[in-house]
Amino acid sequence: MSLFTMGFLLVILQPSSGQFPRACANTQSLLRKECCPPWDGDGSPCGELSSRGSCQNILLSQAPLGPQFPFSGVDDREDWPSIFYNRTCRCEGNFMGFNCGECKFGFSGPNCTERRLRTRRNIFQLTTSEKDKFLAYLNLAKHTLSQDYVIATGTYTQMNNGSNPMFRNIDVYDLFVWMHYYASRDTLLGGSNVWRDIDFAHEAPGFLPWHRAFLLMWEREIQKITGDENFTIPYWDWRDAEDCVVCTDEFMGGRHPTNPNLLSPASFFSSWQVICTRSEEYNSQEALCNATSEGPILRNPGNNDKSRTPRLPSSAEVEFCLSLTQYESGSMDKMANYSFRNTLEGFADPRTAISNISQSGLHNALHIYMNGSMSQVQGSANDPIFVLHHAFVDSIFERWLRRHRPMLEVYPAANAPIGHNRENYMVPFIPLYRNGEFFKPSRELGYDYEYLQEPALDSFQDFLIPYLEQARQIWAWLVGAAVVGGIVTAMLTGLILTCRKKKRGISSEIQPLLTESEDYNNISYQSNF
Which of 32, 96, 115, 215 is in Cβ range 3.0-4.6 Å of 104 for a Cys bridge? Predict the structure, then answer.
């Protein structure tokens, strides 16, 4: 595959969304526990002189957590981001960003007052030039240094409580790989001890909102480094796929001719180096991933453990998942039954919604099927198929939101695993976002999916289903009401007829003239149903 020269894409970088703002990765900010950088527009912290925002104490949720993490004060991610900063920018109106220099998702313009809706499209519906541009944008992000964000290479304790900052530069694409790693890494307990049953982005209610925010920030990064404000992430609709149809040199890289675990040298993805894939090594060294290159992308689609993932997900499995009415249930982790989130994530059987961690369904099935870098949680974002896959998973989440129209209160406020309550801040994002902020329809966040815009029968069915479900739940009451209504109507009819018979005895000279049409005009019909 030959791509056009990417030199024209190298533009002046603008502020980005991600992890530690460079302006706050210093001794002074860490010791003061304050991250309120100035906005370039007026030079004041958080753009306060322009009424964009102000430096405020962060407000942490006090809601109780689930029992999955039995420790306190041992992990920098607890009560994020308070171990590093307890004062950050709180933006007003539609302003957003670590210094309130950006617009909220779905808004644009100098004052962030203009609504904007972008459409994510199927990668196979893109023209050749659109597809090549997307691939070129990925490669540009992989080779462009993030100007506004750095990553932490040590814990807060290893930084001597802020007096010895440990941060490192990173390119834009790998910044997001690192964030995915940091949210899902193990807790270091000292020595060789670690706690593995912890994940701030998976295995709990925040899985879908976290990845929704992650993709929106990643999408915005590409828009900025390319200057293409119309860019959106394409998705791969993998329902009923027989194999990895995007695994070709024309798209995301084909199979190497002699080593099935590597990518074809005809794809520039074969030259990409992965980071953050050696979790056991980091744990043994009591260290964090420092973004050192660790080898090429690995991928051997279809040669996975068939007893765990026999095939890619089917349309029927997706439809069953969408029929589940509960977003979350029970322990609110990977053992949850009849949970839409747990079924879509892939820890529950997509035919019964019963938890079965020995199998991998839906979202998890795709990761396991890829049989390589995608199959390890912490380093899975190294493979660019990750964004295509999660964009489609997000579209399924969107279909569920539109079908069931849940209130915000449906998202658990308390007793979820650590970091997953509604008001918890998502790890490791700065600016700060709460889980509940992304439990809403995508149009409110400024984007839609091409296949969800079509006024097809499925959309009408999606609209009717929640009302039909409610009717099913109260059908007995409805039948009883109908019976009672019929009895009352019969009694009233009998009473009216009796009165009319009595009136016929009155002299015709004083009887009112009542025609059939007038009789109907004086009767009001109303359906209780």
Answer: 96
**Tens digits of residue pLDDT in 339-364:** 999 999 999 999 999 999 999 999 99
Contact yes or no for 397/210 (Cβ under 8 A): no
The two tokens of residue 403 are 């079908």
Question: C-alpha angle with apex 242: 238 to 248, nearest 5 degrees?
Answer: 75
| Angle of CA points 233, 177, 429, to nearest 5° | 85
Taking the C-alpha atoms of residue 412 and residue 422, their distance in angstroms, rounded to an integer, is 6
Could you tell me the sign of the dihedral formed by the alpha carbons of 127, 130, 133, 134, in that order? negative
| C-alpha 170, offset from chain centre | 24
Q: For residues 413 and 328, is the Cβ–Cβ distance under 8 A?
A: no
- Give the count of domains, the chain: 1
In a domain, 219, yes or no: yes
Total length of the chain? 529
Q: Are strands 193-195 and 187-190 parallel, antiparallel or unpaired?
A: antiparallel
**How many angstroms separate the CA atoms of 121 and 133, rounded?**
14
Let me know if residue 376 belongs to a domain: yes
Cα(52)–Cα(134) distance, rounded to whole angstroms? 33
Q: pLDDT tens digit string along 35-84?
A: 999 999 999 999 999 999 999 999 999 999 999 999 999 999 999 999 99
Cα angle for residues 74, 150, 217 (degrees, 5° grid): 95
Q: Going by C-beta distance under 8 Å and a sequence separation of 6 or more, which residues neighbour residue 159? A: 30, 152, 165, 166
Question: Residue 442: inside a domain, yes or no?
Answer: yes
Q: In angstroms, rounded to a whole number, what is the distance separating the alpha carbons of residues 406 and 201?
A: 21
CATH of the domain at 430: 1.10.1280.10
- Written as one letter, the residue type at 205 is P
- CA 190/CA 285 separation, integer angstroms: 10
Domain around 231? 22-74+82-452
Decide if 481 is inside a domain.
no
Close Cβ partners of 522 (under 8 Å, ≥ 6 residues apart) = none
Q: Do 180 and 378 meet the contact criterion of CB atoms below 8 Å apart?
A: yes
Q: At what angle do helices 457-473 and 385-404 cross, to 10 degrees?
A: 50
Q: Can you tell me the distance from the alpha carbon of 334 to that of 329, in angstroms, rounded to the nearest whole number? A: 10
